[in-house]
Amino acid sequence: MSQDPDDASSSFPSLPCNELVYRLAIRSRDVDQDRPKLWLTAFIRRPPKDEQDRGDEDGLSVNPSHSCNLEDAKGGFGGVIKRVYGIGTLHTGWVRDLGLEIIQDEDIHALIQGLPYEREDPAEANRLAGALAELSRLVWPERD
Questions:
Q1: How does pLDDT run across 4-37, given as a tens digit for each residue?
Q2: What does the pLDDT read at residue 1?
Q3: Start-end of H helices in 4-141
Q4: Most buried of the four, 7, 8, 35, 72, by CB within 10 Å?
Q5: What is the pLDDT of residues 88-105, one digit of tens each?
Q6: In the chain, domain spans
Q7: CA angle 89, 106, 92 (to 5 degrees)
Q8: 39 three-class SS
Q9: What's the helix, strand, coil split of the chain in %, to 5?
Q10: How far apart are CA 90 and CA 38, in angstroms?
Q11: Measured between alpha carbons, how far is 85 from 66 in angstroms, rounded to an integer?
């Protein structure tokens, strides 16, 4: 987002290990239609497309549940996100167990840091994305 993560760490307290964060699937291919999960593609960092697009430069976006309403997330935060196909949750502690960190940088936004870009280290990017996908739980859309 707009704030430097180093500055953000001093503005927000560290997220507790039992905090849930939401990961929004903004592409239909990121949601497994056969079981209630997000695919690993939902956890691959997006590189910048051009000079105006920062991609996932600072880390992978998530939203802390203590400050983010699930209804707002479903609606793409009032149109900031065009369409949301699914929302998964992750426990902050489980993410940290993978050697990654979650830093809150805005009131309703945080970043998973430590994930490599797929082009930098394909094996590690896919391993960590797969681990995050396995740890996630799809909370919307609800499945029977």
A1: 444 545 589 999 999 999 999 999 999 998 888 9
A2: 42
A3: 5-11, 70-74, 76-79, 92-97, 122-135
A4: 8
A5: 999 999 999 999 999 999
A6: 17-140
A7: 30
A8: coil
A9: 30, 25, 45
A10: 11
A11: 22
